[in-house]
């Protein structure tokens, strides 16, 4: 209620008292109010509107000075000359299942993150990093998307929010203080674990991660964390072309969605997939996304949709709007289509082929292996539905995902608007043609979750006659009856030659070996590793100035693997790499600690599993290739080869990180010696014997 001058307030109270007295005649103090005739009451009610017109600020309600909404900005925002950011907790609620384990209890929480440009420079493509540390899972966020992919997002180690749709923060000067253009509020909903009470745990920090900005430590008070980030005066930006939209980013896999032609009801788009990772690879790639506004794919060139079901269009809004369209000819009507690359034999097809970089059967190799196979391109005609019936209404699909067979697992971010892609003019003239609009999707390789790899590694060594096989369920046990095997048990040690035998044929040998070595055998045996590709790392020798390893690749799948490659990360020991003898090998810059290897020309084909000589009696035989790798110890300090320096920290096959054993072969006093190391022992024994003999004479 508006505040009144004192004189009007007095009149207001007097009027209220008079009306109240007329309507409710009764004894007030010592004054006996007279009954008012009914006609006088009607006359008073008629006069009330006139009084309201004469005194518009009057109110018949009593003035209790109700609290007003405080729009005063926080002091941190007022004092900030740069980019102001805050994170405010909104409370939390306990979720099911309820547990007495405090650290395992799940809670839902809400929070509001705010970013405001209070400086004189526009912030393009703003990125706000929130350092969560309570195993948070971000379920939704309005006004932004996560750089880690689609929601829900695992934010245990923090996540970066990117503006969507407001990707840039303009200045207050150029917008006349329009708060909607200079700021963004992010309403966050998620789940966290642990903590007591109802107070929502705060993140460790918040900061702006755009290049050239620096942020001090954030301050917290009363459930709010805030920070003011400013331009780093020492930062020297690289010469960059000024862009209208967000600058293009770099990832392991970059996807560009270009609009090439635009019409009222449809447009032509081109999708370009670039593999820019030295260890990235895809075989038989499948690309999926989600249409958000009822679009459908009318035709395609350079790729095809896995399913073609016209009934999905007929029963949708598209079927009502395009009543005369023959949907039997439509390429795909799904909200979430699955796109596949064309086989090589369709490359010159006049209808669906004849596009550069298309038709490689879904193979994407690293650039240093074959630049012509590191990129894929396809085009699609997209039909729109109302209300998007105009030439400038473009909405790229969301929720992009891409995967392959025995390949790394990629996590894709949202499509971000970037400056239009430039193309050489199709006429052959030295002119440049631009796309109408362009968006970029960045996908990065993720570390496989436990028991979710696609390849695994076994360890063996010259000084121990037992091999450590791949981890139990290294590649998952979803298709295994875990009632008959233990999915969490440590795998049984094996004689090295048993690694050549399929898992189903190892049980008897494993039991015999355990009995011979006096090792316990559990009643419920470990489950298999279930990996299509396994790699044996055998420490072959360890001598004064070097050491060697034998690497063996096994293909347990039915399909052959063409153009395969592997990579080994040995940390500091990798700097001693000397040679790999049966494969092509090289170091990966810039650290040179990763060794990249592939088959020699004509030997890059790893066949699949085949039947034994006598299928009724002999086990199946996996496809196999092996090579010896030699290393030098010079200038590498003290290396403990058996203690771990001689074993890889990471192993990759076709870009996929393989599961490693959790321990190394033990080196006991009764160990076997390699031939090279055994020779000095023989010489020493002979010398001692001769000396003793001479003394005896």
TrEMBL record:
Alphabetical list of InterPro entries matching this protein: COB_C (IPR056900), COBRA_pln (IPR006918)
Residues covered by the COBRA C-terminal domain: 454-665
Broad class of where this protein is predominantly found: membrane
Annotated Pfam families: COB_C (PF25079), COBRA (PF04833)
Cell compartment(s), UniProt: Cell membrane
GO cellular component: plasma membrane; side of membrane
Membrane topology according to the record: Lipid-anchor; GPI-anchor
Keyword terms of this UniProt record: Cell membrane, Glycoprotein, GPI-anchor, Lipoprotein, Membrane, Signal
PANTHER family found in the cross-reference section: COBRA-LIKE PROTEIN 11, COBRA-LIKE PROTEIN 7
Family, as annotated: Belongs to the COBRA family.
Annotated protein name in UniProt: COBRA-like protein 11
The organism of origin for this protein: Cardamine amara subsp. amara
């Amino acid at each position: 209620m508006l505040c009144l001058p004192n004189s009007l307030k007095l009149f207001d109270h007097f009027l209220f008292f008079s009306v109240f007295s007329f309507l409710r005649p009764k004894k007030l103090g010592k004054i006996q109010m007279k009954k008012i005739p009914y006609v006088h009451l009607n006359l008073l009610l008629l006069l009330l509107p006139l009084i309201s017109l004469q005194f518009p600020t009057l109110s018949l309600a009593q003035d209790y000075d109700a609290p007003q909404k405080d729009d005063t900005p926080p002091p941190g925002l007022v004092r900030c000359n740069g980019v102001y950011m805050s994170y405010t907790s909104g409370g939390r609620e306990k979720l099911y299942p309820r547990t007495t384990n405090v650290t395992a209890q799940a809670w839902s929480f809400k929070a509001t993150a705010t970013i405001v440009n209070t400086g004189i420079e526009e912030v393009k493509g703003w990125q706000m990093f929130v350092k969560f540390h309570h195993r948070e899972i971000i379920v939704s966020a309005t006004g932004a998307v996560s750089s880690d992919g689609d929601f829900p997002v695992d934010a245990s180690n923090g996540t970066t929010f990117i503006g969507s749709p407001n990707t840039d923060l303009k200045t207050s000067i150029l917008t006349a203080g329009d708060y909607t253009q200079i700021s963004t509020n992010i309403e966050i909903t998620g789940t966290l674990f642990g903590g007591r009470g109802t107070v929502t745990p705060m993140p460790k920090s918040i900061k702006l991660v755009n290049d050239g900005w620096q942020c001090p430590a954030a301050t917290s008070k009363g459930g709010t964390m805030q920070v003011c980030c400013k331009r780093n005066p020492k930062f020297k930006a690289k010469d960059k072309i000024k862009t209208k939209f967000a600058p293009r980013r770099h990832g392991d896999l970059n996807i560009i969605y270009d609009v090439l032609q635009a019409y009222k009801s449809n447009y032509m788009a081109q999708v370009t997939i670039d593999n820019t990772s030295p260890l990235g690879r895809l075989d038989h790639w499948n690309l999926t996304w989600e249409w958000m506004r009822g679009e459908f794919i009318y035709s395609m060139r350079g790729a095809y949709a896995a399913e073609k079901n016209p009934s999905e269009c007929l029963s949708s809004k598209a079927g009502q709007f395009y009543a005369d369209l023959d949907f039997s000819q439509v390429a795909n009507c799904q909200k979430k289509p699955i796109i596949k690359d064309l086989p090589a034999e369709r490359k010159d097809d006049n209808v669906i082929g004849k596009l550069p970089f298309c038709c490689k059967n879904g193979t994407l190799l690293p650039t240093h292996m074959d630049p012509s196979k590191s990129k894929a391109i396809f085009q699609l005609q997209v039909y729109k539905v109302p209300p998007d019936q105009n030439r400038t209404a473009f909405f790229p699909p969301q929720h992009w995902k891409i995967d392959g067979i025995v390949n790394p697992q990629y996590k894709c971010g949202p499509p971000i608007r970037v400056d239009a892609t430039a193309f050489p003019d199709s006429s052959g003239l030295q002119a440049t043609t631009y796309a109408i609009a362009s968006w970029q999707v960045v996908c990065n390789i993720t570390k496989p979750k436990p028991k979710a790899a696609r390849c695994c590694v076994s360890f063996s060594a010259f000084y121990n006659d037992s091999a450590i096989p791949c981890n139990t369920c290294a590649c998952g046990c979803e298709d295994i009856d875990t009632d008959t095997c233990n999915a969490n048990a440590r795998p049984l040690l094996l004689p090295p030659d048993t690694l050549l035998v399929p898992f189903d044929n190892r049980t008897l040998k494993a039991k015999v070996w355990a009995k011979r070595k006096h090792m316990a055998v559990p009643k419920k045996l470990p489950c298999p590793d279930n990996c299509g590709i396994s790699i044996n790392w055998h420490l072959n020798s360890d001598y004064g100035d070097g050491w060697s390893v034998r690497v063996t690749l096994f293909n347990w799948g039915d399909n052959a693997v063409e153009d395969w490659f592997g990579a080994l990360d040995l940390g500091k020991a990798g700097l001693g790499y000397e040679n790999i003898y049966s494969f092509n090998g090289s170091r990966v810059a810039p650290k040179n600690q990763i060794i990249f290897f592939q088959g020699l020309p004509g030997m890059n084909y790893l066949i699949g599993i085949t039947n034994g000589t006598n299928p009724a009696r002999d086990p199946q035989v996996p496809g196999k290739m092996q090579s010896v790798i030699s290393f030098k110890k010079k200038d590498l300090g003290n290396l403990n080869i058996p203690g771990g320096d001689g074993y890889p920290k990471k192993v990759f096959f076709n870009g996929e990180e393989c599961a490693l054993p959790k321990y190394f072969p033990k080196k006991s006093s009764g160990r076997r010696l390699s031939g090279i190391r055994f020779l000095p022992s023989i010489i020493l024994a002979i010398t001692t014997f001769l000396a003793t003999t001479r003394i005896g004479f």
